[in-house]
Amino acid sequence: MVFYIRKNKFTFLLLFVIFLLLAALAPFYLPNKFFFDAYTIVIDLYNEAGYIGSYPLSMTFYRITKLGSIPFPMVALIQFPILFFILYKIGIPAKFHVVTIKNVVTYLGMLMIAVFISMPSKEFITYIYTSSIVFLYKSETISFKKLLYLSMAILIIFGIMFRPYFVLIPVIAIGMYWITFIKLKNKTIMTVAYGLLIAIFLSLSYGLVKGEYFSASTREELNQLRLNAEASNTIILSPIPADTWYGESVGIIYGFFSVNVPLNGLKHILSPQVVGFIIWQLLLFWILLVRFSWCLKDRKKYIRELWILLIILSYFIIQGIFEPDLGSAVRHKIGMFPLIYYAFYYEDFRKKLSTAV
Fold first, then answer.
1. I need a labelling partner for 262 at 20 to 30 A (CA). Which of 27, 44, 278, 282 fits?
2. 356 pLDDT more than 80
3. pLDDT band at 322 (very low <50, low <70, confident <90, very high)
4. Which domain holds residue 279?
5. Is residue 1 included in any domain, yes or no?
């Protein structure tokens, strides 16, 4: 009896084995800065464990599951297969074995799962939680209106319990959706641009109420303290102070480009890992914009995929407000990888669903 495995599945399994080994060996080759969050979560020096907030909830999770009390290589051997199994359940694209730009970006994203989520991590929780949105949109038994409400509720609940800025995703995504009905030249780019304007409006409105804008009270305040700290070479600081309405507006736009089209990061040309992150983010953003434009051309046919992309792009816009540095931006994108993976290959998953029905 001849055992046969399709090339796409073989590629998927091969990458799984290679990256699993890299994940398990991560503590032996990654610098200590990669494990700062992991140690903070595991040690819980100030007894912060709880059920509201990213650190408190992560500390509680790793305490209850006992994953915080075993060596990091063992954590990787448990967590990494779970993360890859989620991708497997989403589906393996038919041409996953073919070397294309899209597939290479995906391969590198999978590698970053091994690098960033091979230890106790807040992104492990984000990854699992956001994957629930993908499975909602893949379901053929739930009406579109219901799954849209459910996905927005999932984001809001996650924002309330884990990361507050997730609450802004539905607001920006819905705003961008209505903008797509306006006749605009280069609708793809202009929809994202208006999404940025919505984010700026939200921040300025918050500033009127609280007296301090979003980025000024988060990213800018943190990075001012980190200016001369170790491993602060990729921090994102607004070119002008963010304590005025125009300074905050410039800061949000600058932050958006810094984390999604980070050409300004090429000043770190002598740091191969930084250049690698930059190239990956440029290609990732470009591919998502192309797919967004496809969905806009036939929104009725691709309505589910359109909303997945609106969620992703809204998240990318929000990253421009809160991300303190390039490394954090990449790490947090990996937490959204199930959504990105689905958006990359939605034609394959659509075919599988239509075949199954």
1. 27
2. no
3. very high
4. 7-356
5. no
Count up the domains in the chain and report the number: 1
Per-residue model confidence (pLDDT) at position 229: 61
Per-residue 3-state assignment (H helix, E strand, C coil) for the chain: CCCCCCHHHHHHHHHHHHHHHHHHHHHHHCCHHHHHHHHHHHHCCCCCCCCCCHHHHHHHHHHHCCHHHCCHHHHHHHHHHHHHHHHHHHCCCCCCCCCCHHHHHHHHHHHHHHHHCCCCCHHHHHHHHHHHHHHHHHCCCCCHHHHHHHHHHHHHHHHHHCCHHHHHHHHHHHHHHHHCCCCCCCHHHHHHHHHHHHHHHHHHHHHHHHCCCHHHHHHHHHHHHHCCCCCCCCECCCCCCCCCHHHHHHHHHHHHHHHHCCHHHHHHCCCHHHHHHHHHHHHHHHHHHHHHHHHHHCCCCCHHHHHHHHHHHHHHHHHHHHCCEHHHHHHHHHHCHHHHHHHHCHHHHHHHHHHHC
**294-320: pLDDT as tens digits:** 999 999 999 999 999 999 999 999 999
In a domain, 317, yes or no: yes
2 lies in some domain: no
In a domain, 281, yes or no: yes
